[in-house]
Design brief:
This protein is mainly β. The protein has one domain. The protein has one helix at about 1-30; strands spanning about 45-50, 60-65, 65-70, 80-90, 95-100, 105-110, 115-125, 130-135, 145-155, 160-165, 170-175, 185-190, 195-200, 210, 220-225, 240-245. A four-stranded mixed sheet has the order 4-1-7-8, with no helix packed on it. It starts with a helix and ends with a strand. The model is unreliable at about 1-5 and about 10-30 (pLDDT under 50).
Length: about 240
């Protein structure tokens, strides 16, 4: 009787063991298990700008562990240099700027959206480096003889600035934008406009003229950068028009 009971117990335990192994197999690799593919957020075209007058040598840009522009590439941007890259939209991603030796200079994070025009700007001076993102909702300017324009402040040693149309006392595209800031929206500007003005509303600093050559359907960013104390004219405060489209 005892022998029969032990045999029955062994058989039962063996059956349970097989059942458990089979269950784990089904859980781990069953063909009918639902699989959720990663969401496709699409891609954005992003403009990168080197706007640090204190470091005019080449730099490298990284998105996460991916090299966007390498330090030894012929396309590496010098001061005022720009380049465009297609990057994935979606969750926040880290941008890092490094020097020619591979040392990190600055970093920031951004989550891209195809509904925006986006610039990643490397700025600062000879002792400090910054990188920041300027993203503004897209606007259509293809009709009515208009062009879309926005303003970005990338001059580390300058106070707030405004961008005016036609004259230093003209209509504002953006008012009192601080360092690393951007106008909240694109503004439609008449295509016949030949000059924009970067203005210190306090009157402490002279206004800076920015010649432009506009065409219907274009989208432009005016970037204020440079350094008041620079020894050469091309590194002093200035406004650079950059085509987003």
């Amino acid at each position: 009787m005892k022998k029969r009971t032990l045999q029955t117990l062994r058989t039962t335990l063996y059956g349970l063991a097989l059942l458990l192994v089979g269950s784990f197999g089904l859980i781990g690799c069953g063909e009918d298990d639902p699989v959720t593919p990663p969401k496709d957020y699409g891609f954005s075209s992003v403009t990168f700008l080197h706007a640090n007058p204190g470091r005019t040598t080449g730099i490298a840009f990284f998105l996460g562990d991916t090299t966007l522009i390498s330090a030894d590439a012929s396309e590496q941007p010098q001061y005022e240099g720009t380049f465009k890259k297609t990057v994935p939209n979606g969750e926040s991603q880290k941008y890092t700027v490094k020097d020619l030796s591979g040392a990190e200079l600055a970093s920031t994070t951004a989550a891209h959206d195809s509904s925006q025009y986006t610039m990643v700007i490397y700025s600062g001076n000879s002792t400090a480096s910054d990188v920041f993102v300027a993203a503004t909702k897209k606007i259509s300017s293809s009709g009515g003889g208009k062009v879309a324009v926005r303003f970005v402040h990338a001059a580390k040693d300058a106070g707030p600035r405004s961008l005016k149309i036609g004259a230093a006392d003209g209509a504002s595209i953006a008012s009192n934008v601080s360092y690393k800031g951007a106008s909240g929206a694109f503004i439609s500007v008449d295509v016949a406009t030949e000059t924009l003005w970067i203005v210190d509303e306090s009157g402490a600093k002279a206004a800076i003229s920015v010649p432009v050559n506009l065409s219907v359907g274009e989208v432009w960013t005016i970037v204020f950068h440079g350094s008041e104390g620079a020894l050469t004219p091309d590194l002093k405060w200035r406004g650079t028009p950059i085509a987003d489209k």
